[in-house]
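Format notes (please read before filing issues)

Several people have asked whether sequences and structure tokens are stored in separate files. They are not. Every record keeps both together, in the order shown below: the sequence lines, then the token lines. Line labels are part of the format and must not be stripped during preprocessing.
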Amino acid sequence: MEYQNLFAKIIVPLDGSKWAERAIPHAEHVARSGGSELILVHIYTPAGSAYLGDATLANQTGHITQARQNAENYVKGLKNVISSQNINVRTQLIEGTNIAALFCDYVNSEGADLVVMPTANQNRLMRVLLGDLTSQIRGCINACLLLVRGDMEAEWDAESRKALDAQAAAEPKAPVVEILPSATQLLESCKTLFQAGLLTAAEFEAKQAEILKRT
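Then the structure lines:
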């Protein structure tokens, strides 16, 4: 069974870092193989929003608007590149401070089948906002999780692997149909062997009689 055929909707969470973008090639491969829809979800927190009060933030409208525009431009650029590869892709911005909860709510509301993202055990200097999102979302998303450990290496989350293997085992196996050559084809083969000198006249007549007896 090809696992990628199970995933109609694939989500990749991004935070603007190259670390998070490592997941994109793997998601593209699955989407291309299965004709899936790819959703790039850019998660960002307006600068200082976790520490400033509402009144202070109200005076930062210009900065917040600019941050939102930068986020839109970022995912738009990625979308244009992916779209050029004939992959169905769209984007979504998620703005807030409780990233894990917001992301889980979005994944489940979309009915996504697969989330592709880097593992948490990477150099912390490479992370921007996603941080340890991998470990936080395991228990709250209703989707499989494909974890990218390097630029060219990815593996299924343990729970996702169990679910996929169980589904593969439950699928009915196609019956094996043995297609035998017809009597005409067998006679032609024997004739070819006889003409090539690989069968004597006696052997040819014996094979011919045996084939005709079966029909």
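For reference, the curators noted about this record: The chain has a mean pLDDT of 78. Residues 183-214 form one domain.
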